[in-house]
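Incident log, structure service

09:12 report received: a user says their structure output differs between two submissions of the same chain.
09:20 pulled the input from the user's history:
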Amino acid sequence: MVLPHIKAGSIERLTNILAGLVSFTAKYLSDDVLNRLRELQAKETSSMAQANYNAMLHNVQMAEELDRPICQDTGLVQFYIQAGTAFPYLAELESCLKDAVIRATLSAPLRPNVVQCFDEENTGNNTGTHIPWIDWELIPGSDKIGLFVYLAGGGCSLPGFARVFTPLDGYKEALKAVFDQLVSLGVNACPPLLVGIGFGGQADAAAKLSKKALFRFIGERNSNPKISELEEQLEGALDNIGIGPGGFTGNNSVLGVHIEQAGRHIASLAAALSIGCWVHRRSLIEIQSDLSYQILSHKRFGAIQLESGL
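09:34 re-ran on a clean worker, output below:
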């Protein structure tokens, strides 16, 4: 049995770790996103596109050097958790996450972005009804957690949608809807874009899967060969639109295309779109039952001490 004062100290430490992670995510791009930006820059042939990538990468460098958020829109904080059912602080984790967001808002600092719907009042601390948004996946028997934190800005959220099609419309109409959204609103989402697409039987399932697709590391393909091939084809087709970095035209429009799917009903096909901007701020941390941890998304930094205020 864990004594109450010992558990309280552990919960405080867990909250500080999570607050440090949120703050860290606002300031440091993950390895895969940074590498992809450099790769896309090397492929560009226009001077305008090169200038935009230079500005983006200089912005990343200055954020690291000055210990400041990369973008003034620090987004809405979202968590996706692969939670071991034997993790000793599972019951307290949701309250820890909310407290962590409040602390990170002050320490990072994060811009207060949360407005309560209908009341139309800013909460001032980036929390509110169902915010931070938390998705759970339970891992039976495991005593650790894997946690993604994602800062979703307003611009990259604008093209998002979820829609249900008839099977007669099929995948062709669903993908046409994706292209229509990106052609009309993609420039507002701060390209190059990470495109997450979800397919399923209901709109809510497709929407959740489209967001989950954004957590996959860039370059990782869906394990289904048919879906993997479609991801590659869509990347090429979207690049041909020529949106380019910042929307000023260029050879590439996307960081990548990720597709996730769930089984559908025989009479419906739902599709959803979620978008990540060029400053795609998401981190993955693994926390053990003894609260030791490692950040798996930012290996270039080595061991990171989140409690030190990094």
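09:41 both user submissions now match this output. Likely a transient worker issue. Closing.
09:42 reviewer note: The chain has a mean pLDDT of 95. The domain at 4-28+70-153+281-308 is CATH 3.30.360 (Dihydrodipicolinate Reductase; domain 2).
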